[in-house]
Specification:
The chain is of the alpha+beta class. About 20% of the residues lie in helices and about 30% in strands. Helix 3 crosses helix 4 and helix 9 packs parallel to helix 10.
Length: about 750
């Protein structure tokens, strides 16, 4: 029986009483050692240890901070010490000695201000030690200190000082960083070394565009290629993520200092392309001509606007065949001639070396092929990432099917670190640029590829490729471009916004992140329900106060979750989670630890029969299809999955999930066999070899994923995860308790 609402409220108000006070140290989370007993290692972790500003300069105070989290049930005292290399000193700090981290509050934030005597790449560390001197936790931190510079306050950003670079160098520009989409920064939060020099900026600010223009032209980048997204087709043009061009670039002071072009993101079929030829020539092309091609800063080469197209092969279906696409492209060129241009350069994206695909692109009537990025498999070292890219580039040239404009890629991770992860540091990237420059020198002079190079990417922070100034390497990538392609460029000064009293530009996203942090701190409170079963890993009852933004973990293990557009309703005993597309996100489910032998229990109710591919508890996602587990409904029947190969091992019961009543469900895995239970009875078993791989750290309750369409439709209650395999008798007893509660419950 789960805690009732008044008990839940009482637990929230009195959570400070869950851990003993004083100087006791936490053990493994269950008790404190008595005086004279062997000392236990305190269960304190360093959740975050990072600079508080995007970049630091020598001889200027650089604030850093660390969050300590007590994961045990007793207050902890320990020492926190910074390990600093020579030349770095602490100017000030709030860190007491010793540091007390209470079990009730769980979190402590320590702050320091550092100062570097000279420019440096400094390796720091934070060490936490128990009272007897044993190391509890250690977190390293590498910081870049740029050359010293006095802060000035001119009226505006100093004028750009372009360098002479005969090669047309373009950088792909990712326009996803709008103020109302803070979730786009999620992967950067996981990788704080990627923090841009502008912070987690709002791209619609004209001043942001001016900084980007200044940094670009001062290092030889002469144009940006903005990703351009159409949101519907067959009518007047509607777009998304257009603020980087329309609100920032077009309204910026330095808009005339560099060129821009667009890459048509023709990838979402039925929305991003064209409905037919009439749509192309009545709506889309006129929009481009009037809004972009005629703009004085739009890139024209040989008097022709330059248009990049992502997935040009999708136009074959949109326009009814290869021949029709070729005719449309030629007609687009004629429309541009009629508008006063010399024609139109059309470049199609392709990141492979399949000659058949290149022949298709040639038959479509494209002028050139280019790669948005080069995909290099196997998480390669920098040397192989460079070698593989050059092999792609050389093979494309050797096939001599369609001329190319060369792209060089700096790194890759994917939006969730899926697949291959790699990065080429600035010094090695400079070597790649020199190889690309030499290759371009052999391209016939009448081809665009002999005078144009594309850089992947200016600011694809989430996907892991970027050359704009940022925390880890500062201006390193841009300086590499300047060294290789600049002519007679003298010494230069790389300014940051704070050097001239400008910024910050990330106030909106920072406010969002601070709100998330407050919610996470609330969710991670230690709350233990009376009579909580032994061996629980987590227990969510949804019995909090109606206005609570979190669902507590009543096992005491601090695995609380955030309500994502979710609400509560009357449940089996107190409240339940309403599953209507909303969900509870447990963001740090890795705290659940390895679950090699485990059980999952929940109680569900629905009035909708025949639900298919609908999920109640899930940690299996599209980017980790061989990890985690989930419980839901397939073809109307309860299902438990714990994959070994992608999407494998769905154990489905033989009977449909009943409607109109509360149904207890349970699933177990003992390291060899999966079992599924409904109403206390085993309804399926499946052999499953091998251990369970952990997921990416998230657990979603009530849905497959936050905001996804594959959500269970009904109510979800009393979700428990056990670190052991429940017996058949225990599962029958739990089901009997559900039946007993249901008999005494008013009809819904």
């Amino acid at each position: 029986m789960k805690p009732t609402r008044w008990i839940a409220a009482l637990l929230l108000l009195n959570s400070a009483a869950n851990g003993p006070a004083g100087d006791l140290q936490a053990t493994n989370g269950d008790a404190a050692f008595a005086a004279g007993a062997p000392a236990a290692t305190p269960t304190v972790t360093i959740r975050r240890f990072q600079p508080d500003r995007p970049l630091a300069r020598a001889r200027r105070a650089a604030p850093i901070s660390a969050d300590l989290v007590n994961q045990g049930d007793a207050d902890v005292q320990l020492t926190a010490a910074l390990v600093l290399p020579p030349g770095i000193r602490v100017v000030s700090s709030n860190a007491p000695n010793p540091v007390r981290v209470s079990a009730a509050d769980a979190w402590v934030r320590l702050t320091w201000e550092l100062e570097a005597a000279e420019p440096a790449v400094a390796d720091l560390a934070l060490e936490l030690k128990a009272r007897d001197g044993r190391l509890v936790a250690r977190q390293p931190l590498r910081m870049l200190f740029l050359p010293p510079l006095e802060v000035t306050k001119p009226a505006y950003i100093p004028e750009p000082v372009p360098i002479r670079a005969p090669t047309l160098i373009g950088a792909h520009h990712c326009p996803l960083w709008e103020a109302d989409k803070p979730e786009m920064w999620n992967n950067v939060i996981k990788h704080p070394e990627r923090t841009p020099a502008l912070g987690f900026y709002s791209q619609e600010k004209p001043e942001v565009a001016d900084w980007e223009t200044k940094w670009a032209v001062e290092h030889g980048v002469s144009f940006f290629i903005y990703c351009w997204y159409r949101t519907s087709q067959g009518g007047a043009v509607r777009t998304q993520f257009g603020s980087a061009i329309h609100d920032a670039l077009f309204k910026s002071k330095f808009a005339d200092r560099m060129k821009f072009t667009i890459m048509w993101e023709n990838q979402s079929r039925g929305k991003a392309g064209v409905a037919d030829a009439s749509d192309l020539f009545t709506h889309l092309l006129p929009y481009w001509v009037e809004n972009y091609f005629k703009h004085p800063s739009y890139l024209k080469v040989d008097g022709k606007p330059v248009l990049f197209i992502y997935r040009p092969e999708f136009l074959v279906d949109d326009l009814g065949g290869v021949t029709n696409v070729a005719k449309a492209f030629e007609q687009m060129r004629q429309v541009c001639r009629d508008a006063g241009f010399n024609g139109l350069y059309l470049l199609g994206e392709y990141r492979g070396v399949d000659p058949q695909h290149l022949r298709l692109m040639k038959s479509l009537g494209l002028d050139y092929t280019f790669a948005y990025c080069w995909y290099v498999p196997g998480s390669p070292a920098p040397e192989r990432a460079i070698r593989t890219q050059m092999e792609y580039i050389r093979k494309t040239g050797q096939m001599n099917i369609l001329p190319q404009v060369v792209t060089v890629s700096q790194a890759w991770s994917g939006w969730r670190d899926e697949g291959t992860l790699w990065k080429i540091p600035p010094l090695e990237f400079e070597g790649l640029l020199r190889q690309a420059k030499d290759f371009m020198g052999a391209i016939p002079k009448d081809q665009l590829g002999s005078r144009m190079l594309l850089l992947d990417n200016w600011n694809e922070w989430g996907e892991g490729h970027y050359i704009a100034p940022y925390r880890e390497f500062g201006f390193g990538y841009l300086d590499a471009v300047r060294k290789v392609f600049g002519e007679g460029s003298p010494e230069h000064l790389d300014l940051l916004p704070e050097d001239v009293g400008r910024g910050p530009y990330d106030t909106v996203v920072r406010a969002h992140l601070e709100a998330l942090e407050r919610k996470e701190r609330l969710a991670s409170q230690r709350v233990v329900a009376p009579g909580a079963p032994v061996g629980l890993a987590a227990w969510w009852t949804f019995n909090e106060l109606a206005e609570s933004p979190v669902a507590f973990d009543y096992s005491g293990h601090r695995n609380g979750g955030f309500l994502e557009q979710a609400r509560r309703a009357a449940g089996l005993d107190g409240r339940a989670l309403v599953c209507d597309g909303a969900s509870v996100l447990v963001p740090r489910g890795l705290a659940l630890g390895p679950l090699q032998a485990f059980s999952v229990e929940c109680v569900a109710r629905t009035d909708i029969a025949g639900q298919d591919n609908r999920w109640m508890v899930n940690s299996v996602f599209g980017h980790n299809t061989t990890c985690g587990f989930r419980i839901g409904v397939l073809a109307g029947k309860p299902c438990f999955q714990a994959p070994v190969t992608p999407w494998s091992h769905h154990l489905t019961g033989p009977e449909p999930l009943p409607t109109g009543r509360w149904v207890p469900l349970a699933a177990t895995f003992d390291g060899r066999t999966m079992r599924l239970y409904m109403d206390g009875r085993e309804c399926g078993a499946m052999d499953r070899p091998g251990s369970l791989l952990p997921s990416d750290g998230r657990l979603v309750l009530g849905n497959y994923e936050v905001g996804h369409a594959a959500f269970f439709r009904g109510l979800l209650d009393d979700v428990r995860i056990h670190r052991r395999v429940l017996s058949d008798a225990e599962i029958r007893t739990a089901a009997a308790n559900v039946e007993k509660l249901q008999r005494t419950q008013p009809k819904l």
